[in-house]
Amino acid sequence: MGNKNFQCIRTQNVDGLTVVHFVDDKVMDPSRIELLGKELAKLTEEESSPRLIVNFSDVKFFSSAAINKLIVLEKKVRAKGGQTRLTNLRPEVRDLFGFTHLDSLFTIHDSQEDAVVELNGK
Amino acid sequence: MSNLTANNPSAGQNKMNQPNLPIWELDLLIPSDSNQACQLIRKTASYLEEQGWSETDVFAVHMGLEEAIMNSIKHGNKRNAEKQVRIHVKVFTDHILMTVSDEGEGFNPKDLPDPCCPENLDKDCGRGISLMKGFMDRVEYHQGGRTVTMRKKRTSTDNKGQAN
Q1: How far is B18 from chain A (nearest CA, A)?
Q2: pLDDT cut 70: percent of chain A above it
Q3: What is the per-residue DSSP string for B48-111?
Q4: Which uninterrupted H or E stretch holds A109?
Q5: Is B112 strand, coil or helix?
Q6: Do A100 and B63 touch (CB under 8 A)?
Q7: d(CA B143, CA A86)
Q8: Number of A:B CB contacts under 8 A?
Q9: Tell me: the pLDDT tens digits for B44-73?
Q10: Are strands B138-142 and B95-101 parallel, antiparallel or unpaired?
Q11: pLDDT higher than threshold 90 for residue B119
Q12: Which residues from A are below 8 Å from B127, CB to CB?
């Protein structure tokens, strides 16, 4: 799962895992969020058991419509026996997951390194 | 944004010299169009940033306003382009008041399923009210659920840019 010609996300391979960064610092524009959803879906299509780390370090705002795309991603990854981890959430974005109890649906790590260690069983 | 401000000549007016009045105010009618809503939200957030509101506060206001407007467009007006959403934002020196009204049938928030229940967690709707309540200090519904009023107090850690 290498880099693709995405507009809303950047991907890189780290220790056999796919790390996803967002291009926009404010993920709120409806048309961009639709495209984001399609690009996230592509991430799940090529691997039989995707292992994704979604790194929020560049994100200052994340709308609930974008959250819905993440939920779809998580369900698709889980259906294929894969794993998704969220990392580097600023406190306000972390609150977003807390207020909606979505922190019980997603596994959230403070740092990308922590997620890599956990997913690779080191 | 010009098409929005043209709807109301008072949009974005600055009232810094009248201490008992909001220092900035938007009062607009927009169609049920999420793109126009985004412009309005960005305008409000930009003003707060210019006034030195903290990133945390601006995030909260952004989230509350977006959820309220999107709920009105999606659930209230059911995306009917002929129906409008009224957004009234009043910024004071130490807090912000936001009122969002739609032309829908209204609803009772108590009748909604709890989006935080495990069986509802992965559904793609219903989180708006949880987010508004989480990020705002006060959320109240009026007019049978067609109007929501939200209040957010400005945190006191960074008050630069406040009116005298």
Answers
A1: 33
A2: 96
A3: HHHTT--HHHHHHHHHHHHHHHHHIIIIISTT-TTSEEEEEEEE-SSEEEEEEE-SS----GGG
A4: strand A107-109
A5: coil
A6: no
A7: 40
A8: 65
A9: 999 999 999 999 999 999 999 999 999 999
A10: unpaired
A11: no
A12: 64, 67, 100, 102
Q: Do A92 and B121 touch (CB under 8 A)?
A: no
pLDDT along chain A (122 residues), means of 10: 79 95 94 95 88 97 93 95 97 95 95 97 74
Average pLDDT taken over every residue of chain A:
93
- B-chain CB neighbours of A78 within 8 Å are none
In whole angstroms, what is the distance from residue A70 CA to residue A78 CA? 12
Q: Which of A61, A99, A101 sits opposite B121 (nearest CB)?
A: A101
Q: Are strands B84-91 and B95-101 parallel, antiparallel or unpaired?
A: antiparallel
Q: What is the pLDDT of residue B157?
A: 60
Do the Cβ atoms of B122 and A92 come within 8 Å? no
Question: Cα distance from B39 to chain A (closest Cα, Å)?
Answer: 9
Chain A residue numbers with beta carbons less than 8 Å from the beta carbon of B41 are: 28
- Residue B112 makes CB contacts below 8 A (sequence gap 6+) with B126, B129
Residues near B20 by Cβ (< 8 Å), separated by ≥ 6?
none
If you average pLDDT over residues B129-146, what whole number do you get? Answer: 96
* Eight-class DSSP state of B153: E
